[in-house]
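User: 3-oxoacyl-reductase. Structure?
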Amino acid sequence: MADRISQISSHLSPSGGLLSGQVAIITGSGQGIGAEAARLFAQEGCRVIVADIDASKSMSVASAINSSAGGETLALAVPGDILNDDYINDLVKKAADFGDGKINIIVNNAGYTWDGVIHKMTDKQLSTIISLHSLAPFKLIRAASPYFRVKDSRPRCIINISSTSGIHGNAGQANYAIAKAGVVGLTKTIAKEWGPAFGVRANTIAFGHIATRLTQAKEKGAFVTGPGGEKIALGIPGAKEQPTGSDVYADIPLRRPGTATEAASSILAVASPLFGYVSGQTIMVTGGRNM
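Assistant: Predicted structure:
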C-alpha cells in the first residue's frame, strides 16, 4: 500500500491531495510511525502539527517536510510533554492558529511501553502508561472539542492508536493492555456523541507487530525518560533480527512484521475520504495475526 500511496502522491500537488486543506495534530510524530504519518499527510496536502516530546526530532521532521513542499509551509513542530496539561492546551492553540482557526484531524499516536508482570508491576508503571495512552488522548480531544463540534460540513476525524495488546491482552503488559483497551471505548463514545450532530468520524487502529523501537531487541539499548527521570528500556528482551519467513513470525500469515510506512499508510487511509463512511471501528493492522 505504501507504494500505491507514493504513486498517488507523485501525481498530486499539496493543493489537490486526499487531505487537501485540512489540518492535523499527530502526537508522537518525531520518529517512527508518527513521523511517517506526518510525511504522508503532508504529501496529501494536509498541514501537520508535529507533536513530540523530543524537540530536535520534532523540528527535524517538520523541516524535512517543508523542504520537500516546494516552498509551502506544511508542517509546524510543537514539541512538549503530552502528560502536561498546559502543553495540551498550547498544542491545540498553536494547531488552530496554524490552521487559520480550524483543526480537522487528531491522531493520538504518542506512547511507549513500560513492561512488567502483574505481581511485580508498580503503581507508577500502571498509572504512567494509562495516563500516556488513555488519559492524554482524552484530554487532547476534550481540549480540541471546540474545533470538532462545528456544523460546517467539513471533514473531521479522530484516530486513536491502539494495539493487539489492548484487544487480546499480552503477558507482561497489563498496564499497556488496560490503556490500549481504554482508547477503543473512547473512540466508540466519540463516534456516538459527535457523529450525529457534527459528522465527526472516530476510529481506532490496532497495530500488531510493527518494526519500531518498541519491538526491536531490548539489548539495542533504546530508552525513554519517564516521569521523575527514570530511564525506561524499550524493546523485547532477547529479541533477535530474523530473516523474512523465519519461524519467529509463524503466527503472522504474511510471515513478517509491518514497516513504519505501512503502519502510517493505514492511518492515512482511515483519515482520508476513502474511509468517509467508516466510524466507530477498530481496524486491525496485523498482517493477518489474531484473525
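The two ends are 20 Å apart (CA to CA). The CA atoms of residues 39 and 215 lie 22 Å apart.
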